[in-house]
Amino acid sequence: MQILQKAKTYDVCIVGSGAGGGMAAKVLTEAGATCVLLEAGAPWSSETDAKMFAWSYDSPRRGAGSRLRPFGEFDGCIGGWDIEGEPFTVAPGSRFMWFRARMLGGRTNHWGRISLRFGPWDFKARSRDGLGDDWPIGYEDIKPYYDKLDRLVGIFGSMEGMENEPDGIFQPPPAPRAHERLIKKACDQLQIKCVPSRMSILTQPLNGRAACHYCGQCGRGCSTHSNFSTPSVLLPPALATGKLTIVTGAMAREVLTDAEGLATGVSYVDTATGQEKQVRAKIVVLAASACESARLLLNSKSPRHPAGLANSSGMVGRYLTDTLGTGVGGQIPALEGMPSYNEDGIGGMHMYVPWWLDNRKLDFPRGYHIELYGGRNMPSYGFMGGIHRLTGGGYGQKLKDDYRRLYGSFVWLSGRGEMVPSEGCYCEIDPNVVDRWGIPVLRFHWKWSEHELNQARHHNRTFVEIIEKMGGKVTSAIPDRNADHGLKVGGEIIHEAGCTRMGDSPRTSVLNKWCQAHDAKNVFVADSGPFVSNAHKNMTWTILALSMRTSEHIAEERNKGNL
Fold first, then answer.
1. C-alpha torsion 511→515→518→523, nearest 10
2. How far does CA 178 lie from the centroid of its chain?
3. C-alpha dist (Å) from residue 149 to 103, 106, 377
4. DSSP state for residue 348 in the 8-state scheme
5. What distance lies between CA 66 and its chain's CA centroid?
6. CA nearest 174: which of 129, 217, 209, 211?
7. Over the chain, what is the mean pLDDT?
8. In the 8-state DSSP scheme, what is residue 103?
C-alpha cells in the first residue's frame, strides 16, 4: 500500500474498492488522474490470504462459518449481516438484512461469479408492463462496455440468441455434470430453456491470467487469478500507473462540500485509531454499495444540502430493491449408487435456466432464473436432511450403506427473481442510533408485494415439476405452505440496488444518465445505487460496465475542463 500524502489534493477520491470502485480506479488512473481509494475494511490478497487448498479439518470449526465469516472459515469473505459495532435498524413491521463486506475488493472476493448482462427489456421495463420507471439509458448505450468487459475480465458461456439474455464474447463453457445433464433433459421435456452458465471464470488463459484449474474453491479467493475479483484484475493495473493510493481501514463519514455545494473531499474515520481524517479531491466517486453510498450522502448535510448531499429530490435511499430468493431440494433415484466419476469444473453451476416465459400471460410482471446445484462434491444441498427424510435415520452398517447409495443423488434448485421497485422499500438515517465511530446508521423499511409473492409461488411449482420430471421426489420443506412462499428476507440474497437512482429529471432522481449527481456536478456514484430497476440477473456485470462508462465520461469531462 502507498502512504497517504498529507495535504495533497487528488484528482479523484473513490469510496469503496469492490466492483464499481475497482473499475473506477483502473479507468481513471489509466486516463492520467491521481486517485485515492478509501476502503473501510482490511487489506486482502487472493495470493497470500486465500485458503484455496486448506482442508476443513485445518480449521478449529471444521470449516464452519462465524460472525465475520458467514459462508465458511476459509471463504474469501470478511464481513456479514451482523458486524460488531456497526448496527443497522429495521422499522417496525419490516424485515431486512444488510450485508457489508469489510475487506479490500469487497464482495468481489467471494461472489458466485454469475455474470449476466441486463437485456433490452430490463432497461425499459415500464414501457412493457407499466410498472416502475424506465432507465434513461438503453441496452445499446451499455453494450459497448459489456463487450469491453468480456474482453478484459473473461467470461464463459454459449451463444443462444435470446432477445433479453444478450450473448457476450465467450470462452468455452465447462462440460455439464451428471445431475446437470438430467436437469437439462427434464427441462427440455418441459420446454424450459436450460443452457450453459455465464460466469467470469477463465477456461482459457487471458491477459496474463491462467485458466481455471478446477479446484472448485472459487468462493475462497483464487490465488491464480483465474476468476474475477477486483484485487486480481482491476487494482494491479491501477497501481502500476503509480497514480493510485489505497487507504484501508478508512470508514467514510461524509462528503465534504464548499460554499457552492460542490464536493471538496471526504471525511473518514481511521478504524485502527478512531481518529477522524480528511482527504481532499476535485471529484468524488461513491462506490461503497447501494445502501452505504446512500448513507454517506444522507449524512453529508450542509447549508447548500440540508437534506443530505444530492438529495434535493428526496430520492436518496428510495426505491431500494433486492433479488427474490427461493429454493427446493430433491432426491433423484437415477443418480443413486453411481460409481465415482470426474466431476471437475468451476466452483459453481455449469448450467442454468434463464427466463423462458412471457410475463404478460402470468400473474406476476417480472422474470427469474434458476440456479442448479448438486453433485458428489456438494453434500450440503439437502444431503443430510434428505437422507434422514428418506430413511428415517439409523446407525451402523445400514446408515453407512444408505450414505454410499444416496450420496450425490440430491439436487437443489434456487430461484433468483426480479422485484418491482416500490415506494415502501427504502432506507433512511435512524435519528437515534450511531455506530462505533459515531456515524448515524441506516433504518430499513421493507415489504414484498403481491408481485413477488406470486412469482415465488411460480418458482416453487416449477422446481417441483422439474424434480418430478427427473423421476425424483422433493426432500425439502414445501415452501408454498408458508405465507411468504419461502421467500428469503429482503437483503439476504445480497443484491440490493437503487437508493441513488439515475433519471432525466432532478425532481424524481438523484443522478443523471452518467451517474452524476444533479445537485453537485463533481459527485458520481459507481455501484448498484444508480439502478432504476434490478433485473433477476446477478448485478455485478452491470455494475462493472456502468462504472466503466461513468469513469470514461469523467475522464473525458476532465480533459475538457468541465470537472
1. 120
2. 28
3. 23, 19, 31
4. S
5. 21
6. 211
7. 94
8. B
Report pLDDT for 52: 86
- Rounded CA-CA distance 277/320 in Å is 30
Between the two ends of the chain, the Cα-to-Cα distance in Å is 28
pLDDT of residue 384: 58
DSSP 109: G
Q: How confident is the model at residue 392 (pLDDT cuts 50, 70, 90)?
A: low
Domain 1-52+66-155+218-323+423-447+497-563 CATH (choose: 1.10.1140.10, 3.40.630.30, 3.50.50.60, 3.40.30.10): 3.50.50.60
Sign (positive/negative) of CA torsion 505, 442, 520, 552? negative
Cα separation, 286 vs 425, in Å, equals: 22
Residue 408 grid cell? 450425490
Q: Any residues with CB less than 8 A from the CB of 320 and at least 6 apart, and which?
A: 290, 291, 425, 426, 427, 444, 446, 496, 497, 498, 499
Give the three-class secondary structure for 149. helix
Contact 73, 66 (CB under 8 A): yes
pLDDT, position 1:
41
CA distance 297 to 505: 19
Please give the radius of gyration of the chain, using alpha carbons only, rounded to the nearest integer.
23
Q: What is the 3-state secondary structure (H, E, C) of 184-253?
A: HHHHHHCCCCCEECCECECCCCECCECCCCCCCCHHHCCCCCCECCHHHHCHHHHHHCCCEEEEECEEEE
Report yes or no: 53 and 220 within 8 Å, Cβ to Cβ: no
Give the span between the Cα atoms of 382 and 387, in whole angstroms: 8
How far is C-alpha 97 from the chain's CA centre?
Answer: 14
C-alpha 194/C-alpha 351 separation (Å) is 7
